[in-house]
Design brief:
199 residues, Alpha-D-Glucose-1,6-Bisphosphate, Chain A, domain 4, alpha+beta, 35% strand, six-stranded antiparallel β-sheet, PDZ domain-containing protein, 2 domains
Length: 199
Amino acid sequence: MAALTIPSERNKWETKSCELELKSGGDTFFDYGWNSTYRCKTKGFIENEKLVFEGDDHSLTIWTLEKYNHGTKVSIEYTGLWIGDLGHFGMDNMAFGTYQFIRNLKSVLETSSDIRSSFWKSWIGVFHTTIQDKAIKGTKVVCVKEGTPAASLLKTGDIIIEVDGKAVHSHDDFEIHVTEKVAGQYVHLIILRNQQEKR
C-alpha cells in the first residue's frame, strides 16, 4: 500500500510528483510527466485494501489490494463513458498507460530498476483503437495529427495490421513497439485501406 499512498514511494514508479490527501473529498494531484496530469478527489480509502479516486467527470479509479500467495494482487478498475472510436481510443490509451506503470512498479519492487526512460520515447502522430471486428486483427486509425510523421501516410479508417514485421492484434501491440523506439527511427507498416493491403 505504501507504493500507492506515500508520495515519495509513488514517485519511484509512477509519478513525477504527486499530492495525496487520503480522506474523503481530499484533493489529489498526479503529474506523470510527458505533459500528462490528473487532478481528482479521494473518494474512499481502506488501508491495505482499497483506494478510490473520483475525477471531475465523476469517473472513478479504483485500486484494490488482496493477499495472493506470498504477495499482493493489485487490481485497477476504471469507470467512465467511452463513446465512439475516439472514446475507445481514450479507453485503450488509459489502459496502456496503466499497463506501462504497473510494469515499472514490478520492476522497481523486484529489481530496484526504474524503466520509465524506455517509455514514450517517440510518437508518429496517430490515435488508434483495437479493431472490434472479429474477422480482422489490428488497430484502427481514428485520428491523425497534422505536422506529424503519420500525417502524410495514414488516414482515418486505416487498419494497422503489422509493424516492422510483427503482427498487430491490438492498440497495445502497436503502441509499445512504436513508443519504445528511439525518436527518428523508421517504422514499416502494413495497413488495410478500403480492404486493400498497403505497405
